[in-house]
């Protein structure tokens, strides 16, 4: 029997396991508190822009520091930094009708993996103060072995050091996520098996057996997804970032992990 720590699977959080409350609830509330005579929608757009620009220049650590963006906009509005405590706003909206699991069987599947000997961890570029309330509200907190956040680590995906910290020396390593740059490119740089999990996946299964036509569809999908995510990768690079497997729902994952078997050990 291999020790539990020999096999580690990490999951991205936002848009992989959960839908958070940022766009619908948190950003609008921050914008309302910072408007000070400006249009709320303009302030909200500026917040999103600051996040996106940091993502596009590959600075994920700054991108997910919502307090920094909020304080900068507060000053633009003639308000003091600290006018809005982003963590407090997130906590207020981390309730079950505003944050939710994306897949109905998430908790049974995570239990199945852990029962099967996998160490299950969350590896998120979000900060702990924003992610922990959401993990608790969705019931995930009790269902994983560890949670790694950017502010804990000092590195963000796709930096291989973020993956190395989360994998902790495991010999079999798998990462599951929705972003082409952070999750798929990151997992590949970290020499982990990469699984793209997205509802709109063009097919489900391992990519090793795809024929030329399917590969072309997959590459076009990767380019389109990377653009929609404003990923910090060029189109020709995105087309080459083929994950080892693709799933649309978390229930697809355990059979594919079995199939990947030895391939997951590299
Ligand atoms: Mg994500």
TrEMBL record:
<dbReference type="InterPro" id="IPR036412">
    <property type="entry name" value="HAD-like_sf"/>
</dbReference>
<dbReference type="InterPro" id="IPR006439">
    <property type="entry name" value="HAD-SF_hydro_IA"/>
</dbReference>
<dbReference type="Pfam" id="PF00702">
    <property type="entry name" value="Hydrolase"/>
</dbReference>
<keyword id="KW-0378">Hydrolase</keyword>
<dbReference type="GO" id="GO:0016787">
    <property type="term" value="F:hydrolase activity"/>
</dbReference>
<dbReference type="InterPro" id="IPR051540">
    <property type="entry name" value="S-2-haloacid_dehalogenase"/>
</dbReference>
<protein>
    <submittedName>
        <fullName>HAD-IA family hydrolase</fullName>
    </submittedName>
</protein>
<dbReference type="InterPro" id="IPR023214">
    <property type="entry name" value="HAD_sf"/>
</dbReference>
